[in-house]
């Protein structure tokens, strides 16, 4: 698989990563055994997808434990990307960016992951109660201590940013507050990578965030590159989702909005048919085409989809394909 470098670091990864979140968080995990999840991670590595994206809060903890079982055998083949700063409480998810907490969280992640170093340690959300320089300073000390190789910042979703403090905008200005925070923490320690939603139907990051990262030698991990599965074309309007599945409450996944957004899937399928590929692979190849510093991390529970997604790294879209995809209608249904 093509390799890409994470920001200005010398750290190389397969151009397509694996998002491990759906195995234990945000989607229905029913009918999935731990062994199936294990097979999926192994299949992704076999297909050249080295970057495994997880977080302590996925599960909580079970996702890192699962990845740790794989790392025990295949540490040298994997690039481990995990996160700290969010705690799963009885009722709510709360941010904790206190320096002492962050250091304890890192030690706990290292134990669960069965490794002595985390390649990319990301702040899941800034804590509105703690100056971000303090949190980032503690994370920088983890690099000095040799527990972490590089630091990353998550800038996910207007709804999450509203809940966790940073001002949430929409459209072109959606990431302005994020960029201001990134410029503050850059004064403390280099940001190697930013994780943000980027897909054919969520393109706001292209306005300012993706160019900001490119101009400063910062990598961009594209989260939700398949539009939570919609862009694969395998979901049917009105199919329904289990209550724990984030799509049961997502405004783009009502039956009406899924029907209204079908032209996006149809457009991806037209391009896919020309290449003998799938709509999911075209959606990922489009994300890859947004810059050499961009690495998509499609999430899946299934080995066959992990392999299919890895195959998108070999798909070269033409200028006409890219123009056709860019011209597709914007998505209907928004959190705002
Ligand atoms: N930092 C953050 O706050 C944050 C937030 C969201 C996501 N992320 C990261 O980004 C990763 C990706 O986001 P995501 O998993 O939410 O969304 P996604 O990658 O856009 O879509 C995941 C969904 O697509 C389905 N899927 C995957 N490959 C497919 C294929 N080839 N054909 C058909 N369906 C396919 C999966 O189904 P199955 O699950 O049934 O396999 C899953 O339901 C996460 O795993 C996580 O690592 C980070």
From TrEMBL:
GO terms for molecular function: oxidoreductase activity. SUPFAM superfamilies: NAD(P)-linked oxidoreductase. One of its GO terms (cellular component) is cytoplasm. The keyword Transit peptide does not apply. InterPro entries: AKR (IPR020471), Aldo-Keto_reductase (IPR050791), NAD(P)_OxRdtase_dom_sf (IPR036812), NADP_OxRdtase_dom (IPR023210). Keywords: Oxidoreductase. Residues 16-328 form the NADP-dependent oxidoreductase domain. Coiled coil: none annotated. The keyword Oxidoreductase applies. It holds the Pfam family Aldo_ket_red. This is Oxidoreductase. The lineage of its organism: Bacteria, Bacillati, Actinomycetota, Actinomycetes, Kitasatosporales.
């Amino acid at each position: 698989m093509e390799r890409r470098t994470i920001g200005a670091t010398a750290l190389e990864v397969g151009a397509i990563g694996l998002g491990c979140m759906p195995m234990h968080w945000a989607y229905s995990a029913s009918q999935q055994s731990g062994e199936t999840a294990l097979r999926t991670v192994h299949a992704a590595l076999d297909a050249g997808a080295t970057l495994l994206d997880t977080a302590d809060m996925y599960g909580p903890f079970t996702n890192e434990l699962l990845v740790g079982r794989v790392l025990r055998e295949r540490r040298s083949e994997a690039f481990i990307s995990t996160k700290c700063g969010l705690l799963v409480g009885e009722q709510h998810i709360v941010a904790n960016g206190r320096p002492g907490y962050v250091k304890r969280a890192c030690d706990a992640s290292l134990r669960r992951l069965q490794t002595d170093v985390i390649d990319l340690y990301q702040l899941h959300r800034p804590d509105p109660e703690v100056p971000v320089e303090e949190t980032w300073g503690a994370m920088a000390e983890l690099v000095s201590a040799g527990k972490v190789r590089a630091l990353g910042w998550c800038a996910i979703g207007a709804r999450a940013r509203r809940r966790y403090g940073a001002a949430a905008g929409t459209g072109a200005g959606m990431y302005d507050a994020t960029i201001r925070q990134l410029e503050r923490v850059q004064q403390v320690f280099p940001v190697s990578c930013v994780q943000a939603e980027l897909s054919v139907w969520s393109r706001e990051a292209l306005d300012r965030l993706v160019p900001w990262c490119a101009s400063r030698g910062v990598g961009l991990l594209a989260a939700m590159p398949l539009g939570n599965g919609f862009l694969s074309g395998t979901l049917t309007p009105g199919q329904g989702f289990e209550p724990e599945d984030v799509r049961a409450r997502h405004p783009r996944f009502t039956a009406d909005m899924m029907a209204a957004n079908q032209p996006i899937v149809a457009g991806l399928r037209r391009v896919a048919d020309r290449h003998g590929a799938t709509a999911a692979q075209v959606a990922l190849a489009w994300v890859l085409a947004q810059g050499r510093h961009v690495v998509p991390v499609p999430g899946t529970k299934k080995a066959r989809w992990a392999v299919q997604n890895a195959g998108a790294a070999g798909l070269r879209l033409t200028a006409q394909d890219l123009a056709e995809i860019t011209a597709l209608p914007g998505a209907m249904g928004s959190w705002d």
